[in-house]
Structures are given as C-alpha cells and as structure tokens.
Design a protein that fits this description.
By secondary structure, the protein is an alpha/beta fold. The chain is built from 5 helices and 10 strands, in the order αβββββαβαβαβββα. The strands form 3 sheets. The protein has a 6-stranded mixed β-sheet with strand order 1-2-6-3-7-8, with helices on both faces. Strands 4-5 form a two-stranded antiparallel sheet. Its EC number is 2.3.1.-.
C-alpha cells in the first residue's frame, strides 16, 4: 500500500472536520431549541394591575426597611425577567434583601392591535396609571423610579413630565437627587455645543 500524499490527508481531515462541525451544530440546535432547564424569574410576586397586555408585578421583601417603594421600568423589546434570572443572580432579589418593596412593569407581548400604541400611550397612560396606583396603595405623594434600557428613556420622559410624582434615587447608594429632572435636562442641553432653540 502506498503512503498517502498530502492532498489525500487534507481531504481526509476536511471530511472529519465537517463531520465534527455537523455533530456540534446538531448538539447546539438541540440545546437551543430544547426545553429550558434553568428556572428563571423564580422570585415570588403578585400581579396587582393589568390593562391590555401590560401587567404590574409586586415583589414584597420579608422586612420592609425603606418607606418608599421602587418602580422598575424595563424595555418593551426585552423581557423584564432579565432582572430576576435565577436564585443568586437576581437584581429584584437584591433589592428585596435590602428591604426595598419592588414593583416591575411587564409590558407583555405586542399583538396586531398594538401597532397604533405610541410612546405617549406607554409613558402618559400606562406608566402614569401605574405610578398613581402605587402612590395610592402606599399613601405617598412620590415614589422611586428606576428605568433600564428603553425603560430608562421612558423613565426620564415620565420624570420630566410628572416630576411631582417621582423621587429620583440611586438605590445602591441611597443618594437622593434634590433637583427635578427638568432642571438636569436643561443644564445638559445648555452645556452641549451646537444650536439650541430659544426655548
């Protein structure tokens, strides 16, 4: 039997490599398309508000040490469960462990009828209704608000439009911002180079 030449070895290696890639792709496909083996969003909550596809989740700590509850607004596109991945890896649980009562908006999944729902509807209707509900439940004039991703933009808009209902707070340090968001936005615009309107 003659000794294989380099081309034969290359072809053999390519064939073996192709089989390995096929096998890996098959395994990856099974993992990605198969059932999720990790439980997510396991922190107990109660749905205290529902309108259309929007729900408000309420998480209660074992012992409340902060008088003012926190409303978390997440993005429309991603899921709010990103903040409650699994035990030991949960932002929500972290707040609860520090005695913060948490509310979190679940925007749900949009349907065909939602194609005419605007950002204004989300900010000035859904968010405003939710903020008013929380204020009423707790008998407070203002609540804490935290926005993440697109929810951060919604929270800035809401705070600028309804500063009398919101206390801006950095939960990790307890720093309360005394000036309203309108002032902060105006200062940021003034300091930015370029053209500005006379308003």
């Amino acid at each position: 039997m003659s000794q294989p030449i380099a081309v034969d070895l290359i072809i053999k290696n390519l064939a073996e490599g192709t089989e390995k890639v096929k096998e890996r792709a098959k395994k990856a496909s099974e993992v990605l398309l198969g059932p999720l083996e990790t439980d997510i969003a396991t922190t107990p909550y109660e749905v205290v508000y529902q309108e259309d596809r929007v729900r408000l989740k309420h998480y209660l700590p074992e012992k409340i040490t902060h008088k003012i509850p926190l409303l978390i607004v997440y993005a429309l596109i991603n899921r709010e469960t990103m903040l409650d991945l699994q035990p030991g890896r949960s932002t929500v649980q972290g707040f609860l462990d520090h005695g913060v009562e948490v509310y979190m908006i679940d925007w749900g999944y949009p349907t065909r009828k939602d194609r005419y729902v605007t950002i204004d509807d989300h900010v000035n209707h859904y968010m405003d209704s939710i903020v008013d509900l929380i204020r009423k439940r707790h008998g407070l004039p203002r609540i804490n608000l935290m926005g993440i991703c697109m929810g951060g933009a919604f929270s800035v808009m809401y705070s600028a439009l309804h500063p009398e209902k919101i206390t801006l707070k950095r939960p990790s340090t307890g720093l309360i911002i005394k000036r309203d968001i309108k002032t902060l936005v105006q200062e940021a615009i003034i300091q930015r180079p370029g053209k500005h309107s006379a308003r």
